[in-house]
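Dissemination and training. As part of the outreach component of the grant, students in the summer workshop were shown how a complex can be specified as a set of sequence lines and then modelled as a single object. The example used during the hands-on session is reproduced here so that future cohorts can follow it. Participants entered these lines:
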Amino acid sequence: MNHESGGVRPTRRRIIDWLLGTAVGGVIASIVYPVLRYVLPPKVAEAQTNSVMAGKLSQLPPNSGHIFRFGSKPGIVIRTPTGDVRAFSAVCTHLQCTVQYRSDLEQIWCACHNGHYNLNGINVSGPPPRPLTKYKVAIKGDDIWVSREG
Amino acid sequence: MTQQGRFHLPIALLTACVAVAAPALASPQKGPAQAATTPGGTCLTCHLQLDEPALKNPAVGFQHDVHDRPGLGCVACHGGDPTADDPEDAMSAKHGFKGAPNPGEIPRLCGSCHANEVLIRKFAPNLPTDQLSQYLTSVHGKLNSKGDTKVATCISCHGVHGIYAANDPRSSVYPTRVVDTCAKCHADAKLMAPYGIPTDQVAEYKKSVHFKALTDQNDLSAPTCNDCHGSHGATPPGVSSISNVCGTCHPQNMDLFQKSPHGKAFADLGMGACEACHGHHDIAKPTDDLVGLQKGAACLQCHDSGDPGGEAAIAIRTALELATDTDSRATQEVAEAQRKGMLMEDADIELQTAHEEIVKARLQVHLAALATVNEHTSKSVTAAKKALELAAAARHEIHVRRTGLSIAFVFIVFAIILLVIKIRG
Amino acid sequence: MGILDRAYRYLDERLELQPLVEFASHKEVPRHRFDWAYYFGGLTLFFFIVQVCSGILLLLYYRPTAEAAFESVQFIMTHVPFGWLVRSIHSWSANLMILSAFLHMFSVLFMKSYAKPREMTWWTGCLMLALALGFGFSGYLLPWNKLAFFATRVGTDMTSKVPFIGDWLMHVLRGGDDVTGATLTRFFGIHVAVLPMLMTGLIVLHLLFIQRQGIHVPRGATEESKARPGMKFFPDFALREAVVWLIGLALLAFLAAYFPWNLGVKADPFASAPAGIKPEWYFLFMFESLKLIPGHVLGFEGELLGLGAFAVLGMFWFLIPLLDRRSTRGERSPLFTAIGAVALAFIAGMTLLSFLGVFS
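and obtained this result:
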């Protein structure tokens, strides 16, 4: 473009222009590529830390329980002997072990120190100092959806 | 009264030993209906107006006494006539006035109602009636029967004139207050001297993990004095019963211990069980330092490095150390990656397993078998190592990001240089 | 080139571009020993453009509610490809924009470029700086993390010190009595709609004024700029500005790679305030000064007095073009140079001391 600067040989200028074009192209590419990747929908379509599919109703007979993953912590969904579906955090309030459903006791039980919770997640015996955190349950067709309350 | 109204009647009466209406109810002249309509009667009318504290305070206190509610008046314990206007008449022997009962009489006075199953059922069908019989088996009760007037009776712990239900937080036998109630006598060196009992239990207990749980975390299920020694039948648990006492709350630890080689050996040697390693009143939060043969370890009391038990102790300790070290390293690295904006949910799940297996391994220490401890520690280490791998992958990802940005950076710098060259030209 | 030429001819035929091109090709930027200062305005504009672009990208995933804000930012940083980069760039560019705006303002001040006839350019600039600070303040809360939550609580609390309408003002600003989800949606609206609209309008005015009046040459450099031929805006100045923008971009890439912006811990309105709550660095000089003022001065509340003083100083700063009569007459104005130097030293000094932890 600088035609008046006659001292520079045209070939050199052309090389510089070409290199400059390449570099600017690289800069543009390193902006466009991340933006494009960002705009394309990610694998998990939205922030879903508040609800999760905990399992299938048909695979959860009365008087049974199932551990599912809720974010980075385990949750437990139970079906009471009368058929209610309830969900709680599966993290024992004593020393953070993972609790399980005991069909013989009809209670939620922690193997680590023999902590017992009733079917409302309330600590009824053993060392747990607090009830399990309760989750909201919604049944959509055969799917059990669990979400944090509040 | 409204305060107490929140509590169930049966529980409200649970441990109240004093001032119940048997005499009044039994008396033909003063029927229960009359006593119920005017629980305090003229006793309160007069005594509330008196200036002398010793005469006024009982009347003030009785107004919120748990026994006021079922309609029991002063007469229940003291006799007399609460309808008479003339003090002379009200407190005359004619009306069965007894004055203040002496300490030796108190247990049986309270027991006249509280040990009467038929009577108590009328007020509180679920209230136990074994307090008196329990008391008579306790050290306190035995001495009281022998005429020792200094030992604790019902009113020493529950108070008198103003007794609250045991589950009322204002009650002197409410879990958080029990220790200070016992301390009134048991921390008093002068009082305890004739009995030859140490007086440091309260101070020791206040250092314990149980006291912390009770006060700091307000965990009312945490044991205080009476949970190990009994309430009405208060007696120190003997060597033979100590592990059963601890086992009521720590059943798995007790089971494992009794199955362990230690279970029989301790019993044969006539040694206590739990307290040999954990102490009794000043039970601290147990750490892995209790295990092994290093200074301060509990195993050192019986074992040394030559014998197989000592070797096992060292091995168990080493396994625990490996697991906790790996776990804490993994926790740290995962947290670090999280701080750098990496998604570490999978690693958190692994860490959860790693923590849990350590908890289980620590429980298995009571079985004193290396294999079962190892089973859990190795699971923990495996999980922690997975978390470490995930943290390393996250670090790698950060590195990749930096590399990517460095490439962009190079392009930018290159463009800058060429532009400068072009401008110079 | 053929296509470009034809496209130009197509547009020129319909829009009569020739006069514009003519104007642009004659546009010149004076050359002198202070001409490097002319680039800061453009650099600020560059960071603003980056803010607009990265901000729009963040809007694709961000959710302005107390329940989901933190999680959505976390989601952007962890699940969305290059989300960490976009967020980091947005945060860093915000800070660099304000830094660059400050540099631009002080360079203008020392060159006395605000003097008549350019008062209005100074005023639009001052307003834009205020808007930029507003951007920073409102944007800081949006990730809904602990630090931002408490900094916002402290910051909005200061407005309650304004006489008579203070409580009302704080109530309006917070959308309630305390910082809650209502504050968040409010700040979000201000951050992504109100401020950008105002800012865009002011930028257009600011640039229009400069186009209309040409670039100001400081008093000390008039001889020099007369002696040296001006620099053509196209392509000479534009290329140099491009270098500056690329440097800005390189700086962003470097910062995003080596100092990625942290997310912190989710705000818990019921937790007690953590120790050492500090606002963003560009508010530090005010924050620390207000803390230094004793509780009561001459019967007035210290903080109120401090805020009043800053309000007066801000007003003074805004009115500098009218107050500095010597510059208007084209004379030397050492008083205002000194005032500028004191202000710069105060702002830079307090900020630096705060970072060094002198006040904590």
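The interface with chain B takes residues 77-79, 84-85, 236, 239-240, 242-243, 246-247, 249-250, 253-254, 256-258, 260-263 of chain C (CB under 8 Å). Students were then asked to discuss how this feature might be tested experimentally.
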